[in-house]
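Re: that chain you flagged

S.,

Sorry for the slow reply, it's been a week of failed gels. I finally had a moment to sit down with the sequence you sent. For the record, here it is as I used it:
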Amino acid sequence: MKAKLILPSLTEADSPYFRPIKYSLFPPIGLATLAAHFTEDDDVELIDQHVEQLSLDDEPDLVCIQVYVTNAFRAYSIADIYREKGVYVVLGGLHVTSLPDESMQHADTIILGPGEEAFPTFLKDFKNKCAKKIYRFTDYVQTLQHIPPVRRDLIKREKYLVPNSLVVSRGCPHHCDFCYKDAFYNGGKSFYTQLVDEALAEIDRLPGRHLYFLDDHLLGTTKFARELFEGMRGMNRVFQGASTVQAVLEGDLIERAADAGLRSLFLGFETFSPKNLKSSNKNQNLNKNYVAAVRRLHSLGIMINGSFVFGLDADTTDVFKQAVDWGVENSITTATYHILTPYPGTRQYQRMERDGRILTKNWDIYDTRHVVYKSFGMSKEELESGYNWAYKEFYTWSNIFRASMKHDIFKHKIKHLFYTGGWKKFEPFWNFMIKTGELQQMRPALEAILSKVKV
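Prediction finished late last night. Pasting the structure tokens below so you have them in one place:
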């Protein structure tokens, strides 16, 4: 059997806002994980349209497409082309799970929720010519234990800045109203992990030093994370991941992560407003000292990618300057700003749709850069212009320099200056390296910067 697994590019890949470096960071680990369920006799191809050309001239036996909100229309178009030729198409992913009725119009089969358990059953049925229209992950045991190793041989490592990306857990123990996670895991377990030994074995198979954990919350289970970090000590790895302010402040888990090689952390600050936190059900951030969390990370030599959301119901036009000033004052290495986006399937979307606040269902612009709902404290124009101003202002050379100089340790000042400046100020250079296929040549230098951050 010949199978083709496709990650369609975001529709924004056709726009001037497309950032090649962002979409050249990580390979499609989800599809590579599912690919492990094919047999040695199957001819399997994995295509990531963000970094390579997608040919639609072939006629494989099976096409599997991963769909999320901002690539949905492109994914549907690809699916329709293959189905017209008689190719069997299966769709899965966040958007399919959120809007199964919409997705079903473009597929022979849809898979709802994580596919580790449902997908092998589908494959068996497909080969026996008795595939069902819908497979739900809640009909199976929800586990990451004893699944086959990721098919990394299908990943074109040279096309990615961080080819050693991996996932050792699913979901998140928290339940923020604006997060896709609860919609994706609806009816099942919302957080579960691999066996520690299996996670360590996957790490051991990866070449090079630099890893990126794509987990929603790497520190989500204390026991698992503690054993994972203990096992990673001595492996000579450096890694990045995501966590919460609460996990940084509590216990000694963040110190254990630093000892194991953690050098950069994505941290969801989101908002400074207690009212916004409560209305979004982001209770894990309530009454938490953001500054204390930042200082603790800086004392361990861990860089911070701070996430902030604009347009929550208590926000006014003051929120943009507040976020920028706070980020610079507290030496946040990089800032990721978002316009609030009510994703289909989330409690926030359901509430806004009920209240008549959804302005459009053009999924192409559900990209956290456009306003797609009726906001309270600002007009659409104020919210979008404030978002654009914040990004531009935070990454001015003057603010990059100011934030760098606020570090207490000299090498952290230099690291901040080079890392923050390099991420935003040299994008034409990065784009050139990506388009000429020379991205891999830069990886050793970038890993060297990360590896020397530790105090």
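What I noticed first: The first strand starts at residue 2 and ends at 7.

Talk soon,
D.
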